[in-house]
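Progress report, Aim 2. The chain analyzed during this reporting quarter is listed below.
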Amino acid sequence: MSIPIRTISATAVATLAATALVALPAAATAKQYPWNATIDCGAGPVKVGSGNDIWSPLVDIETGHNYRPVAWRLKAGDKVIRARKPGKRTHKTMKCSYADQSASGTVTVLRRKP
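Predicted structure tokens for the chain:
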């Protein structure tokens, strides 16, 4: 029984591609962020990571989708944080619950583009 080299090569490439696609979500979850939190914008809780800047995007750890904050209302211990990004309007936004290691409250983010 003789199998053409071309068939073996195509099978090997397909196997490597499938393995890479399966490993991709695992690599995304392994990425470390300075802040990890859970937000809920109405479709269920989503684990996100973000940088140290309050206006840095909240990145969905599973899908990589960016949630771009425009306003915050948080309580961290006795401190209350209320901030709105300058120049951003409130239309085309959605309010999400937010909880991380040290604070909880709400974050207003820009809606996803359809």
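The two ends are 53 Å apart (CA to CA). Residues 72 and 83 are 5 Å apart (CA to CA). These observations will guide the mutagenesis work planned for the next reporting period.
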